[in-house]
Write a structure and sequence with these properties.
With 163 residues, the protein is an alpha+beta fold. The chain is 39% helix and 24% strand.
Length: 163
Amino acid sequence: MNSSGLNSNYICISIPVRALQVSYVSNLLRVIQAAIRELALSSSHTSQLLSEKPTPVLSSTISFSDEESLIRLFFTHSDSQEDLSVVTEEIGRTFLNSFREFLSGNSQSSLFGFNVPENRSQHDNSLHKRYSSVSKLLKRYPGTFLSHAEVSITFTKDGFGVY
């Protein structure tokens, strides 16, 4: 695991390939942003963080090495691009804990040699549907991990591990 993923100033996604399809990256960033924002707006504490002026925006940096693509997500002021580390810390922790709970509640992704549905029921809320989309995209490249601060979730084709 890349140690740069263990920083509370970022939500990190490490994908174990150098070349990524633009459509994959675009879709991944879109569904993660939607999941993070929906989660943040659902809690009074994190919702308050997003209502500050100037409005916080989710920003990213992407770097590549021979072995991985690293996406770092963090909040900045919309007008100055100044990092909002307190916002990133709080929302990042809330997001990874909530996403980990979702995955743990749906931890058996295959049964008797065939995949079971990612959504546990047709009555799952919209955040669970977003988490399901995020999970499917992160599983596309086995060995991908999502991390923030001390929590890291590594994805395989049929599962995940929390570290």
